[in-house]
Amino acid sequence: MQKFKPQYRRLMFIDRRIKEGAYPNCAGLAAEWEVSDKTIQRDIEYLRDQLDAPVAYDAVRHGYYYTEPNFSLPAISISESDLFSVCVAQTVLSQFRNTPLFQKLSSVFEKIRDALPDKASINTAWMGERILVFPEPVTQVNAGTWDTLAKALRDNRRIAIRHVAAAGDRSRTVEERIVDPYFMVSHKGEWYLSTYCHLRKSIRTFAVSRITSVRIMDETFKLPAGLTAEKMFGDRMGIIWKDRYYRVRIYFSPEVAPFIRERQWHPAQVIKERRDGGLVLEFTTNHINEVKDWILSWGPGATVLSPGVLREKVISDVSRAAANYRA
């Protein structure tokens, strides 16, 4: 049974069981919904005293029934726009279609929709044809691996993992690593596990899809003081964390500058306009390699002004790519 159990859903569940004519009692309802007998008893009293439900107890059948068979619970108040938002959110879930999250979250949304009264319903058939989501290509994540990692994160438990390198033979695993799982992060179609690696004595990031085995150990750990998700991933530019930060300055030509202006690429970005219609985007990041890949995606429309190390990385990649097309 679901863990999220608001009272109105329990009331609808109890109402449905009573209307089925099976004369349910508190013990049976509590066991089915996975709550205490006292919780169900309070719900029965709420139905009778607050919602004027004609509920009565049959001492012979040892269960509840309605003295007025046509009784209906009052409708739950929800606007059409609220229900529309739920349906759109369910459509957006398609971008997680190849992860263990998809089936679980889809089930949650279905339960939300099923719990709503008929008067709140709208025709949603058109959404699949008119509201489209083109998800990024995603890697396959093993459901067992996902669940084990989630438990380790929840309980701050140390884990032992085996992980295949991206360029390695997938039939051969590397040595077992003992790691403290800090965060799990979704980035460009892949889930990553950010950890403290006891072998390397530093923060290391592993692609979840390439973790071939995971084992929860007896030891627990504590996140280092000050090491927050905001500190590690707050600039949104990448997930491979380094302890050195760079002040990045990129010139965007007039042709691509409008596309840069219309989005917030970094939470602390600064845009400086140029007379030629271009602009300079400035921000601070420690995800220098991911920024390099992003810059290359703009082709000749982007030029790195600083830092020098980023400029050299871009020049190197462009030169190597150009060499592939020389006769």
What is the spatial order of strands in the main beta sheet? 6-5-4-3-7
Order of helices and strands: HHHEEHHHHEEEEEHEHEEHEH
**Global structural class:** alpha+beta
**Mean pLDDT over all positions:** 84
Percent of residues in helices: 25-40%
Structural notes for this entry:
This protein has 4 domains: 60 residues, Arc Repressor Mutant, subunit A, CATH 1.10.10; 51 residues; 89 residues, SH3 type barrels, CATH 2.30.30; 90 residues, no CATH class. It is built from 11 helices and 11 strands. The protein has a 5-stranded antiparallel sheet with strand order 6-5-4-3-7, covered by helices on one side. The model has no long low-confidence stretch (mean pLDDT 84).
Core attributes:
single chain; 327 residues; alpha+beta; Arc Repressor Mutant, subunit A; SH3 type barrels; four-stranded antiparallel β-sheet; 35% helix
Summary, kept brief:
35% of the residues lie in helices and 22% in strands.
Secondary structure: elements and pairs:
Blueprint: H1 7-19, H2 26-33, H3 37-49, E1 55-58, E2 63-66, H4 80-92, H5 100-115, H6 127-130, H7 143-155, E3 157-163, E4 177-187, E5 190-197, E6 202-207, E7 211-220, H8 229-233, E8 246-252, H9 257-261, E9 270-273, E10 279-285, H10 288-296, E11 302-306, H11 308-323
Antiparallel strand pairs: 1-2, 3-4, 3-7, 4-5, 5-6, 8-10, 8-11, 9-10
Helix pairs in contact: 1-3, 2-3, 4-5, 10-11
